[in-house]
């Protein structure tokens, strides 16, 4: 009778030890994920520190910015502008300007990646209340990733009641 109790328990133990979750994510995908997040963080940290070289190194030479019109206003023309026209990206010192990245939601397919970047921005006119969101499109150029387009999804204007 004792042997009949132990056999099922041993079978369950053997079956349980054989089950495990395998991670078969290609190593290249992990490297790309880390590299893409690094480019995005360099861009926002460079912006926060006023380090023009740092944020420019994250940009593709033909990078564009797509401003989003507020409800009730006309669509900005042209729809895509050179990244240099983005407010606060002139390379001037950013004293009193602090950008904190909160979250990066990333999707990648071969040589193209897209990310939703949630962040706060503290300036003299904005106390940093509420998260802002940018949509960032990245492209692999050779072995490096660069930002090709940045679209501002939310802006610093306070919501109206």
Fold and architecture overview:
The chain has 161 residues and is an alpha+beta fold. The chain has 3 helices and 6 strands. Strand 5 and strand 6 form a beta hairpin. The longest helix has 23 residues.
Summary keywords:
6-stranded mixed beta sheet; 161 residues; 6 strands; alpha+beta
Summarize the structure.
The chain is of the alpha+beta class and 161 residues long. It has helices spanning 2-18, 27-49, 52-57, and strands spanning 59-66, 81-82, 98-109, 112-122, 132-141, 144-152. The protein has three helices and six strands.
Strand order of the main beta sheet, please? 2-1-6-5-4-3
| Share of helical residues | 25-40%
The gross shape turns out to be elongated
DSSP strand count: 6
- The number of helical elements comes to 3
Q: Mind summarizing the main beta sheet?
A: 6 strands, mixed
- Unreliable spans are 91-96
Radius of gyration: 23 Å
**Head-to-tail CA distance between termini:** 76 Å
Give, in order, the helices and strands: HHHEEEEEE
Mean pLDDT: 76
